[in-house]
Structure formats: C-alpha cells, structure tokens
Specification:
Length: about 450
C-alpha cells in the first residue's frame, strides 16, 4: 500500500470536490452552517479553487476543491499538495475524481524529490475509500515515482552504471532476469552505434536487458532511450539547452516505471526491457560530424549531427529487440525538439502503422488522463534520410517535420515485430499541475499501462 494511504483512522477531516455545475446542489447537501460559511468565502468551484470549512463541533475542518468543468481526473492531487499534516477522508466527491482516481491523484500529489533536501513535514494521509483499488493506485504511483526519481537525479549521480543499478534493483524486486552488457562485450555482441555515441565519456555505455514472465506468453518489448546526459557531443548544445539534459534518459526511466506496474500487476505477457545507456560527451575520441558507422542491422549511418545521438543508440536496441519478433514493440524517447514544437510538453506524439493499436492507445491515454496525440509516419519524407555516402544519415536534409523524420529513421530498424509504437516524450513537466509537479515525469506510462492491462490482464 502506498505510504500516503491509511485504511482507517478515528479522527479525520472530510474532503469535498465539486464541479461548478453541481455547486448549488452541493451547498444544499452541506449542513446549513457550513453552506453559509462557504457562500461567504465567495467559493465558485472554479478549477483548482480551494476553501476550508470549520467544523461547528470543534473537530477537524473540511476542505472543498473546485473542479471547474471536472475534466481533470487527477484533481484530487491538489489536496495532497495543499493540506497540512493529518488524516483525511473522502466526503462529497464528483464521481470521476473519486474511488481509485482519488487515490491515484492523492498519491501523485504527495510526490517529493527528497534525495538532496529532506521535507520538513510529514505529508497528509488519506483514508482509502472502500470502493477503491488500493493495490492498483499504489502500483501506478510507485511506478511513476520511480521514473520521476531517476529523471530528477542529476547526471553526476545518474550515469549509465547507476541506471543499470536501478534496473537491477527493479529486477530483484520482481524476480526478473537481467543482464548488462558493457566494455568489450558490447563490441563482441555487435552494438556499434551504442559504442560510438558513448565512447567519449569515461562512464562507458551499457545495454540493459531485463526479462520477466512466462516465455510462452505474448511478447511485449519496451525500449527506452537512456542518454544520461546529452552535451550534444562535438555539435555542442548551448548552455541553456543543457540545463535539463539530465532528463534525456526519460525514456529509460519511464519504461522502468512502466515495467514495475506490469510486473506488480502480473499481467499475462512476457516482458522484455531494453535500455541503451550512454553519456554523450566531448573528448578527443568523440564521434564526429561526417563519420560513418555501421549499425547492428548492417545499415551504414553517416553522422550529420552528433546531437542526434538518441536515434543512433535506439537503432541498435530496436534491431536487437526486433530479432525475436515480439508481438508488440514499444520505444520511448526524449527524442526531438520538433515534437515539443508540434504538441507541447503535455501531449506527447506517437507513431505507428497499426490502426487498431493507434486507436486503443489514444483511448487508453484519455481514460488514464495521460493523453497522447498521433502523428503520421509520412513516407513522403523518407528521402530526407538519404546520405550521399552511406545508407542513412542521422540528420535529415529537411528542416521541417523533425519528429516524423526521426520516427521514419527508427522505423528502418523494425521489420519482424508484429506491431511497433514509437513515442516521443518530453520526460518533464515544465509547469505544475495537480499531481504533476515541475520536473521529471514518466509521460505515457499510465496510458501504456492502461493499454497493456486491457490486452493482457
């Protein structure tokens, strides 16, 4: 059970959550004295509006949260973020934010990244309502917290080795198998692009390979981009662009958080998680613009820009994943600024040629309040990947549609998988919303979990 939940308590305050349309009806359901108090405060149930109502008998006060039109099913997180230490219970709550949604919202709102600065006060606790699935809310919260903690940890404490250690700890927790390839083994096992990107860092590259579940069950493989810090390489980023580059392993962090949800729920699938983990650094042996490298698949790649390194390491990992022809292959990556320009930080774009998968994923994202938006794998842009001297370039000769051309590049390394889904995530909240504090975020983990749970529960 999540640390912010309790099953019972003698003394507690009541938490109400009301839409603007239901405010009049809600006021009638309150004791008369409390309704008058709320009216005097000018409470209008606007989205995020918050008010305390004293208890006439001297007991703990109640709190009321405005839901506006009631679109945000995670709105209950505002209580966990605003209330002082204490124990609280659900009162009069709109259906779409009650039950399990209330627990998920509350848990996500309780998140603090406390590795370097401890919280001075204990968080409030919520009595779990009887109609809520405590186990489900807990596994989702713990998976998201794992992703957030990994992303929020700065690169000096989160390099390829530390990322591999986090994966090993997760594997041990769930009885999964894990191998980590590094050093000369990477060359022996044929991961040339992963080596090329990571060789300039004293913290060498790794390929993390975790497996769990019945080997005869449907095979689902998750691939997460694990660039623990991205300087841009010799095509150096400006300093302002490096400030949040600890999040460039957001794809890896998110697939680990998602893997926790899958394994904890014991979904009926055979899970594989592949993470190419590197640091893109600058040194005398760094890969250079104009270099040509082979890929695991055998396609030669001309390096047009060393800051387009994510697609290179993913190319080798996707090729490796594709070799066993999984039923579903999903990759997550903080891949392009073009994706942020297209859909912003709150609506990650995704790419697939599987129409059923696209519809199911979009629907799951809406249901989980973890929305996504489909962009096309427009084949008309394939010519932008052509190189004069190699099979492909990692720097398309077209200065538009960057998220699409990146997806097309990755698609060249997937052939045998029955279905493939590529998601270009930010790995970051750039502004706070209920349950989504500014900082690292496991974007689409809840949507993907909802998708996989519907298919493999």
């Amino acid at each position: 059970m999540h640390e912010s939940f309790v099953l019972r308590a003698k003394t507690h305050g009541l938490l109400h959550a009301v839409t603007a349309d239901d405010l009049a009806g809600f006021s009638k359901r309150l004791p008369q004295a409390q309704a008058r108090w709320l009216e005097r405060t000018g409470f209008a149930a606007k989205d995020g509006e918050f008010a305390l109502i004293p208890d006439d008998t001297g007991g703990p006060p109640s709190a009321v949260l405005g839901l506006g039109q009631g679109r945000d099913t995670l709105a209950f997180a505002s209580f966990a973020e605003k209330l002082p230490q204490g124990v609280y219970a659900l009162g009069d709550v709109a259906p779409n934010v009650g039950g399990t949604n209330a627990l998920i919202g509350w848990a996500l709102g309780s998140y603090r990244f406390a590795r370097y600065r401890k919280s001075k006060s204990a968080p409030p606790k919520l009595i779990a309502p009887k109609n809520a699935d405590v186990a489900e809310a807990s596994r989702i919260a713990h998976g998201i917290f794992l992703a957030r903690d990994l992303i929020n940890t700065p690169a000096n404490d989160m390099g390829p080795a530390e990322l591999a250690a986090a994966a090993k700890a997760l594997a041990k927790q769930h009885g999964a198998k894990i191998t980590v390839l590094e050093g000369a083994t990477l060359e022996k096992k044929n991961f040339p692009l992963l080596i090329a990107v990571g060789k300039a860092s004293p913290r060498g590259p790794r390929l993390i390979d975790l497996t769990w579940g019945n080997p005869r069950a449907p095979r689902v493989t998750l691939v997460g981009k694990g660039v623990c810090f991205d300087s841009g390489g010799l095509d150096l980023k400006p300093s302002s662009a490096m400030l949040t580059m600890k999040k460039d392993m957001g794809g890896a962090a998110t697939v680990l958080g998602l893997a926790h949800m899958i394994m904890d729920a014991k979904l009926k699938l055979r899970l594989r998680v592949l993470i190419p983990a590197v640091e893109n650094s600058v040194a005398g042996n760094a890969f250079r613009p104009g270099d040509v490298y082979p890929s695991r698949k055998g396609l030669s790649i001309e390096i047009g820009n060393t800051d387009a390194e994510g697609r290179l390491i993913l190319a080798d990992a996707l090729s490796f994943a594709d070799e066993e022809a999984p039923e579903l292959l999903i990759d997550l990556a903080t891949l392009t600024g073009a994706a942020r320009s297209a859909t912003g930080m709150e609506l990650p774009p995704f790419f697939t040629d599987d129409e059923t998968l696209a519809a199911d994923f979009a629907r799951a994202g809406l249901a989980a309040n973890d929305p996504v938006w489909r962009l096309p794998l427009w084949r008309g842009y394939e010519s932008a990947l052509q190189s004069d001297i190699a099979d492909l370039t990692n720097n398309p000769n077209y200065n538009l549609a960057g998220a699409i051309t990146a997806g097309l590049f990755l698609n060249r390394f997937v052939e045998k998988s029955k279905s493939w889904l590529h998601i270009d995530i930010p790995g970051w909240n750039d502004r706070p919303r209920p349950g989504r504090r500014k900082g690292g975020e496991g974007n689409t983990a809840r949507a993907l979990y909802a998708l996989l749970r519907a298919r493999y529960a």
